[in-house]
Amino acid sequence: MKIIENIFQFLAKVFTQPIFLGGISISLSSIFTILVAFFAVVVGSRYLSNWLRDHLLIRLGFQEGTREAIATIFRYFTITLGFIIIPQAAGLDLSSLAFLAGGLGIGIGFGFQGLAQNFVSGLILVFEQPIRVGDYIELGDLEGTIRKISIRSTIVLTNDGISIIVPNSDLVNNRIINWSYENMNSRIHIPVRVAYGSDPVLVTEAILAAAQKESRILSFPPPQVWLSSFGEDSIKFELLVWIDKPRFRLPIQSSLNFIIHNEFYFKNIRIPVSQRDLWLRNPEDLKSVFESLNFNQSKQNREKSSRINLNKEPLYSPQDLSLRDLLKKVVYFENFSNLEILSLIEKGYRQTYYSEQFIFHEGDPGDAFHIILSGSVEILAEKANKHIRDLYAGDFFGELSLLMGIRRSAGVRAKEKTIVFVVSRNIFQNFLSSYPQLANQIASKLVERKQEFIERKKELGLSDDEDLENNPLVWIRKRMKTLFNI
Ligand SMILES: Nc1ncnc2c1ncn2[C@@H]1O[C@@H]2COP(=O)(O)O[C@H]2[C@H]1O
């Protein structure tokens, strides 16, 4: 019993006995308490900052990047505070450690210069926020999404799913392209080259048709085509499209290139190969050489094979007519110049429907305006099971829901193979102000349909309005003004 008592007494003495360290006295038990307190502060601040980031700040409506930044600042702040307060609370007089800190400081200065630089850069990243968690960035040849910003380094997840750890100083000292700085929307340029002799309007149409087929590009702002320059052996175009997922920039570009290639194939637009003119100084001398090689014979063969190539039918049959030719058949656009047609083509796209296929149903939300380029459609009051009328090439439909802000007043079904030019809702306003002649035509067509509006006023959700009955043109103009400011 005595022995155990002695051991306890000895341990108590060892733990409470002050040790003198560089001018300060401290016991083992104090060191132990301080270490436990440090540990508790580190773990507690990590737990609290995670809770802040994943719960409280989400509830307060902060964005992912800001949440991450606030949580990081909170964590480092609480840890620093803990490291200052705990030793003092344990009765340690740190002023006597100043000389030690000075010495250490010099050591750190030399040994951890890079670390210190990254640490300061980390603070800059957290406070200034040139990049945030979730942003899509480009740094030299590194491209990816920011996953985590720590005080020393930042983790970037590449499109190949590889996490790259980038020292923070690289992100502060180098030029970064942040694709999602203010918003995710960005415009990408896709260069396209075609052979000299190609019709620029047809090329523009083909490129825009390709853009319409890629669902990941935004319909507004609409895609644009620039004729950027006349190159050595090609005319250079650029397709400009807006996307909202910069991460998919390259796959979208690749998909567009595929579709453009396909469109060119259908429309017999040639992508050029490099061409060189060869000047022979002594053609006469060479003639005999070529003759001896049976040049004429092989020339004939070549011409034959090139004829075959040129006349080769594409795998799929091309569309009957170009969009330009179809639009020029529409009364409002028949006197348009090539340039005007080009800007018209930029505002919409061609869509083909087959016999009996519904273009939309009564009650659908109104999302686009349609002009019939070829074929015919029937307008159906589906709920009343009534055939209203047939419309033909040059006619338009789908204006009512856009102008009135109501759902589709009737269903529209193709009666045969029908090609329509579609102008989406958000471009319709710009479309009407660009083509006042068409806007007038729409207004007068609406007047023709006046009786039907009055009859179906309730069904269409229109309020009682004297103008509608007495002066429909005034009413429609007013309506266009309120909805579209035209
Ligand atoms: N009486 C009608 N005559 C011709 N077209 C009509 C008539 N009623 C509705 N439409 C068209 O059918 C379309 C159905 O969709 P919207 O209501 O957008 O626009 C409508 C008009 O373009």
UniProtKB/TrEMBL annotation:
<comment type="similarity">
    <text>Belongs to the MscS (TC 1.A.23) family.</text>
</comment>
<dbReference type="InterPro" id="IPR023408">
    <property type="entry name" value="MscS_beta-dom_sf"/>
</dbReference>
<dbReference type="InterPro" id="IPR018490">
    <property type="entry name" value="cNMP-bd_dom_sf"/>
</dbReference>
<dbReference type="InterPro" id="IPR049278">
    <property type="entry name" value="MS_channel_C"/>
</dbReference>
<dbReference type="InterPro" id="IPR011014">
    <property type="entry name" value="MscS_channel_TM-2"/>
</dbReference>
<dbReference type="Pfam" id="PF00027">
    <property type="entry name" value="cNMP_binding"/>
</dbReference>
<keyword id="KW-0812">Transmembrane</keyword>
<dbReference type="InterPro" id="IPR018488">
    <property type="entry name" value="cNMP-bd_CS"/>
</dbReference>
<dbReference type="InterPro" id="IPR000595">
    <property type="entry name" value="cNMP-bd_dom"/>
</dbReference>
<dbReference type="InterPro" id="IPR011066">
    <property type="entry name" value="MscS_channel_C_sf"/>
</dbReference>
<dbReference type="Pfam" id="PF21082">
    <property type="entry name" value="MS_channel_3rd"/>
</dbReference>
<dbReference type="Pfam" id="PF00924">
    <property type="entry name" value="MS_channel_2nd"/>
</dbReference>
<dbReference type="GO" id="GO:0055085">
    <property type="term" value="P:transmembrane transport"/>
</dbReference>
<feature type="transmembrane region" description="Helical">
    <location>
        <begin position="20"/>
        <end position="48"/>
    </location>
</feature>
<feature type="transmembrane region" description="Helical">
    <location>
        <begin position="96"/>
        <end position="116"/>
    </location>
</feature>
<dbReference type="InterPro" id="IPR052702">
    <property type="entry name" value="MscS-like_channel"/>
</dbReference>
<keyword id="KW-1133">Transmembrane helix</keyword>
<keyword id="KW-0472">Membrane</keyword>
<protein>
    <submittedName>
        <fullName>Cyclic nucleotide-binding domain protein</fullName>
    </submittedName>
</protein>
<dbReference type="InterPro" id="IPR010920">
    <property type="entry name" value="LSM_dom_sf"/>
</dbReference>
<dbReference type="GO" id="GO:0005886">
    <property type="term" value="C:plasma membrane"/>
</dbReference>
<feature type="transmembrane region" description="Helical">
    <location>
        <begin position="69"/>
        <end position="90"/>
    </location>
</feature>
<dbReference type="InterPro" id="IPR006685">
    <property type="entry name" value="MscS_channel_2nd"/>
</dbReference>
<keyword id="KW-1003">Cell membrane</keyword>
<feature type="domain" description="Cyclic nucleotide-binding">
    <location>
        <begin position="332"/>
        <end position="449"/>
    </location>
</feature>
<dbReference type="InterPro" id="IPR014710">
    <property type="entry name" value="RmlC-like_jellyroll"/>
</dbReference>
